[in-house]
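User: Predict the complex.
Assistant: Input components as received:
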Amino acid sequence: MKSYVPNTEKERLEMLAEIGMQSMDDLFVDIPEDLKLSRPLDLPKALTETELRELISCYTIMNEEGGPVLRGAGAYRHYIPSVIPQLAMRSEFYTAYTPYQAEMSQGMLQSLFEYQTMICRLTGLDAANASVYDGATAAAESMLMLRDNKRKKKILYSAGLNPDVITVMKTYAHCAELELVEIPLTDKGVTDVSAIAENMDGAAGVIAASPNYFGCIEPMAAIAEAAHAKNGLLVAYVNPITLGVLARPADYGADIAIGDGQPLGLPLAFGGPYVGFMAATKKLMRNLPGRIAGETRDAEGNRVFVLTLQAREQHIRREMASSNICSNQMLCAIMASMYCAVMGPKGMKEVGEQNVNKAHLLAKKLTAIDGVKLRWPDTPFFNEFVIDLPDAEKVDKLLADYSITGGLVLPDGGMLWCATEMNRADEFDFICDVIENKGGEE
Amino acid sequence: MRSEYKLIFERSHEGRRAYDLPECDAPDAMDQIPEELKANSELALPEIAEVDLVRHYTNLSRRNFGVDNGFYPLGSCTMKYNPKINEELAVAFDDMHPLLDASMSQGCLALMKDMEDMLCEICGMDAFTLQPAAGAHGELTGLMHIRAYHEHRGDFERKVMIVPDAAHGTNPASAAMAGFKVKEIKSAPDGGVDLDALRAAVGPDTAGLMLTNPSTLGLFERNIKEIAKIVHEAGGLLYYDGANLNAIMGIVRPGDMGFDVMHINLHKTFSTPHGGGGPGSGPVGVKKHLIPFMPVPRIEEDENEMYYLDYNKPESIGKIKSFYGNFGVIVKAFCYIRSLGGEGLKEASENAVLNANYVMNKLRGVYDIPHDRICMHECVVTPTEEMMKNEVHTSDIAKALIDRGYHPPTIYFPLIVHEAMMIEPTESEARETLDEFVEAMKGIAEQVKTDPAAIHAAPVTTPVGRPDEVTAARKPIVKYEG
């Protein structure tokens, strides 16, 4: 049995004696006897490190992986340069708590300040927080920012947001008693800008994604204009890996930019931990939830980093806080920041271009198959797109037989495909062969 | 000692790079995207060589302090040792896409299901969700269950969440976010819930009570049965803040104490590293009557003993996060529980409580102990009146501890104790570590008498001195402008 307790039985007894006790039970006299658990916990027996390793491989063997992955839909397979996981495993970072004691936490605080700067430079906006849990909770928090800033409870959102994000927003909105209004997509797969204009009265703002869930690049400038025309704000939900090649939120007038930082150097890890980023204009800075690192000086004039603007936060403001968030995703944020530094401006542009190129090649090859069509052939896309085909479920199963994780089957029978710099042209050929030959027939 | 450290942006040299992409095997398709949708400039990111990037972060890490560096008795945060094997094993799942067909992710689903079952046994609850990403997120999720429970009974008047004044700040903040009105009740002189105040506070508008047990003073709430009775008889539900669960594993269970819903901090009690502020994980456990409201998806088993994700739960509160939770963190906590087993968990709690009492006992007479009785996994001490006469406050003692190589305790919390220092040693510290810490605390107490100016000057061993926080907040600089 291993409990990571260094003190031996003898030492424990000596310590007990020193505080005037006979046994461990004496420490728990405040707990009413009839509440105490009168039996041992019924858990599987303790394992040594060797046995634990074997146990975990029993779980990994139950998984099936190794084949090509052409699925995104909110979680993206990108190359993670080796320096990122290795540096993130510096235990001064990962075994630290929140940097409450600034003098001994300058490493973490400066890294966060750098992360915030990276997010500002990706989005073009003025201020970023030190992260929230993920993209979906960033969207939920952004609703509360809109509400607090505009003092209005009506919020518009595009039907092009990821359905998971919409569900999370609705869960939070129910509690905050917000009125959420869904803006439909046009027959081009993008947000209906005229519907925004029609619904903006009394609304605090609009939340829209680009590229949207279906991969379409949205006319964000027109969406911003429609929101601003009625004194509303625009929250842009963006995939950060697009920002080396696609227009940035500040360019098209977004007031808040949010998203999931997972594509920036974080593994898929079956859905988390990822990192939600949030950036805003200077005017909205004090509406941001959660921690923010700031720069100041010590008495000798040295540059020092601290957690700042804490008057917004729960440990000071309690029920009046802008959010309840305390722990966020610091280490993930730093990994995302490292990714930006590793890639640099050229790398971010190249990775964006490769995603565009590969996705377009995949689309071209898939639509060359009889009966397969791009759903929105005239709408530009980044690394995801929707195809329509006679029987998506059947194709999905067929591909799975070859250990291929193909496009995600949508409830309406379409398939949402994704290609990144990790995919190769010969994979696309193989996939198309499997689909065309219906498997087994070669 | 003092030294500034350049930002990564200040190390940038045009043209340098740390990574090259392989050549692209697909033809250029950038012309498929109209110019007006494209970026009109290059990103202003640093250009840096790999070796310089590695040194930058390595040196930054040396300006930081983790559990692996030394004693970290940060009360309420349970900074126990983070086992290395768990880090290594968690990455075995890194390539798993969350939207794989269930047939391809049976291992992940089985692990999560097994984790849920073990947490139920440890806590005496009937079901667990692993979806919340952190403690406060768990609180919010748990409170949403309470709200849904009352709403589904047509009981829309229950809008008040009772929160003791000793509670963590996240409690009232989460209650507000869940749409409740917060009613704060004063603590009794012994630091526990004042039963009369609670009786006066409950009524037809009571949605529930949020409670930490052991309390934020590190004391077990002896009246817990009576508290549960008062809240339940008023029609409210009882919420357990699991921040202090490390005191009671295998000894007493929240479910047996009468709690209806609770959260756990895997990054506290179950040893997953805190990552400098996250990622954490905040699973929520509920009793039977709250199961219908749990977030989707739920992991279920079909007739062929295959796991699948069930989204068809019409009374569910919905989702509170993308996908299924901070899976990578969950794996580490799972490894921890499997390493310790039931007996090991109990041993961890016993030793956590022993270590706290051992430290408290040794500090008696040197520092004041406002609630001097057997504590649980943490104790709260304060500077003596004499120290304060020398103008030495809790924050000064904290800074003096930094110079002696320790991370300070949690300070100025709980709010109900003036000048509080909340010390949580955890079970993973050896006796001599505790002895040395106590000597350091005594040394500081001595220095307050002989040389208070030195205490006010602390810390002097760190790369920077005390920051000017007022200016930081008044004239915020939150990004590099160069």
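Chain A touches chain B through 201 residues (CB under 8 Å).
Let me know if you want any component modeled separately.
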